[in-house]
Amino acid sequence: MPYLQKVEAIEEEVLHNLIQFYIYEFSKYIPSIRVEHNGAYKPFNLEKYWIQNNFHAYFVKEETELIGFALVESAIETSPNTIEEFFIMAKYRGKGYGKKIAKELFSMFPGNWEITQIENNRPAHAFWQGLINDITNGKFIERFEEGKYIQEFNIS
Question: What integer pLDDT is reported at residue 77 of this predicted model?
Answer without folding.
Answer: 87
